[in-house]
Amino acid sequence: MTLQSIARRYAAALFDVVQKTGTLDRVERDLAMLTELMASHDGLRKVFATPAVPAQNKRAMVDALVAAAGDLAPETSRLLTLLADRDRLGLLTSIAAAFADRALAAKNIVRAQVVTAAPLGDRTRAALSHALGKAAGAEVIVTERVDPSIVGGVVAQVGGVVFDGSVTRQVERMREKLLAGA
């Protein structure tokens, strides 16, 4: 089993618990805060990820972190304790990402990766987001990337579906048709 699949299992279990307790938003904020904390403290991330530091030392650090935070949801505190006891604190960032994905899905929100040849204007971005939302049957959060190599048009990935409306792809299709007809 890969570390990603292990992180998804922890996230799924936590999600199931917080759905029942009604603390989804609070735990989501807690995990985002903890992820940000780990990103900003390289030493903390290294200590949590290295097997050279004994689990009991990591547990003591987690206990101090939970006490200092003070207002963490009980489910978040239990997750941290469980991860410390099992020496899995290095998975915290992956667990938080998988949990955020589950939370978005529960709210009927999907992420879309959009690649364009030039930056989108506000009106175009809103229209594209609306069109992708209709196609996906959900609210869409658009993440943009500019790639001049597509020449023009848009390539959008929503979940596992890719909508390729780039000029480069259209030229490829024309080429294929011309070669097939020759």
Describe this protein with a few key phrases:
182 residues; alpha+beta; Peroxidase, domain 1; four-stranded mixed sheet; 8 helices; elongated
How would you explain this protein's 3D organization?
64% of the residues lie in helices and 14% in strands. Helix 1 packs across helix 6 (92-106), helix 2 runs antiparallel to helix 6 and helix 4 (55-69) runs antiparallel to helix 5 (74-85). The chain is elongated. The longest helix is centred in the N-terminal third of the chain and has 19 residues, at 3-21. A hairpin with a 2-residue loop joins strand 3 and strand 4 (161-164). The protein has a four-stranded mixed β-sheet with strand order 2-1-3-4, sandwiched between helices. It is an alpha+beta fold and 182 residues long. The protein has helices spanning 3-21, 24-40, 42-49, 55-69, 74-85, 92-106, 122-136, 167-181, and strands at residues 109-116, 139-146, 154-158, 161-164. The model has no long low-confidence stretch (mean pLDDT 91). The chain has two domains: 3-105, Peroxidase, domain 1, CATH 1.10.520; 108-181.
Secondary-structure map:
Elements: H1 3-21, H2 24-40, H3 42-49, H4 55-69, H5 74-85, H6 92-106, E1 109-116, H7 122-136, E2 139-146, E3 154-158, E4 161-164, H8 167-181
Parallel strand pairs: 1-2
Antiparallel strand pairs: 1-3, 3-4
Strand order of the largest sheet: 2-1-3-4
Structural class comes to alpha+beta
Shape: elongated
String of helices and strands: HHHHHHEHEEEH
Q: What's the gist of this structure?
A:
The protein has 182 residues and is an alpha+beta fold.
